[in-house]
Amino acid sequence: MKKRICIALAIAILGLLTAIAPHTFAKVCDIGEKVMKCHWTARAELFVGLAVVALALLKLVSDNGQYQLALNAGIAVNAVGIILFPTALIGVCGKATMHCHEVTQPTLIVLGILIILATLIQTVVLWKKR
User: Fold this and answer.
1) pLDDT at residue 115, as a whole number
2) In this structure, are residues 73 and 60 in contact, taking their beta carbons and an 8 Å threshold?
3) Residues 45, 28, 120, 64, CA torsion sign
4) Given pLDDT bands bounded at 50, 70 and 90, which one contains residue 1?
5) Distance between CA atoms of 1 and 4, rounded to whole angstroms?
6) What whole-number distance in Å separates Cα of residue 130 and Cα of residue 127?
7) Alpha-carbon distance 61 to 22, whole Å?
8) What is the share, in percent, of the chain residues with pLDDT greater than 90?
9) CA 68 to chain centre
């Protein structure tokens, strides 16, 4: 039970970091004459990050294995979105020296991978209990 709570809280923290990263410590480009792609990526990541937080907090409601697996699936799909928004779906600025390209994109990719790893770990543990 404590493992379930720890994993849920870890996923919630990672989701929160995903939501705030493009607006704080891994900031995207400022809006100038033109709105850059990284701005839209930051907005999408805010939504997906908060969705991960909501799903992670729902993991605290019940310790039913099937319920946990279903939430893990939802979290994993959102984590794939976290990775795909800055890489394939929307992207970031094209210039390799831009802050969003050097910092924001790798940060979001790492956060997405960490969320997927946390859900996979819990999924494996739940499958072994069956």
Assistant:
1) 97
2) no
3) negative
4) low
5) 5
6) 5
7) 30
8) 56
9) 18
Contact between 19 and 50 (Cβ < 8 Å):
yes
Average pLDDT, the chain: 90
Per the CB < 8 A criterion, the answer to whether 92 and 125 are in contact is: no
3-state per-residue secondary structure call for the chain: CHHHHHHHHHHHHHHHHHHHHHHCCCCCCCCCCCCCHHHHHHHHHHHHHHHHHHHHHHCCCCCCHHHHHHHHHHHHHHHHHHHHHHHHHCCCCCCCCCHHHHHHHHHHHHHHHHHHHHHHHHHHHHHHHC
So what's the pLDDT on residue 29?
A: 80
| pTM: predicted TM-score of the whole model, two decimal places | 0.91
* Distance between CA atoms of residues 24 and 17, nearest Å: 10
Residue 33, pLDDT > 80, answer no
For helices 65-84 and 105-129, the axis angle rounded to 10 degrees is 160
**pLDDT one-digit tens code per residue, 88-107:** 988 888 888 887 788 989 99
